[in-house]
Amino acid sequence: IAVGRRGGCLDSASHMYGWVKDIPAFTDVTYRGFWTPTSPWLKGHDPETKHQNELGRLMRDDIKEFLKSGRPLLLASGLSVAYVDELENGCRQELDEAKAPHYIVLEQVYARRR
């Protein structure tokens, strides 16, 4: 809600393919989605599991930094400091404990110029 009030689009990544495809200057528009864990929760020691857990560590740290950047927007939308603190702390705890398997999709769109 806070992003929308300021003119932002939370689901812009899911629209990117259509937006680029509609631009006549581009051809061969391609979409790819990459699912990655949001924390290092996978069990095992094989190379692929280690790789996925490293991606999970990086994504966890990135999400935690993103939480900081969203704080002013949430506060400006009228949410209380106590509520935003609770929300941030809960998110950090969930990411750090990594008890449940969560993934996030990283979306990529690319094209060639005509």
Broad structural category: alpha+beta
Computed CA radius of gyration, to the nearest angstrom: 18 Å
Low-pLDDT stretches: none
What fraction, in percent, of the residue positions are helical? 40-55%
Estimate what percentage of residues fall within beta strands: 15-25%
Mean pLDDT across all amino acids: 92
Please tell me about this protein's structure.
The chain is an alpha+beta fold and 114 residues long. Helices cover 54% and strands 20% of the residues. It has four helices and two strands. It has helices at residues 2-5, 12-21, 47-76, 81-97, and strands spanning 26-37, 103-113. The chain has a two-stranded antiparallel ribbon with strand order 1-2. Helix 3 (47-76) packs antiparallel against helix 4. The model has no long low-confidence stretch (mean pLDDT 92).
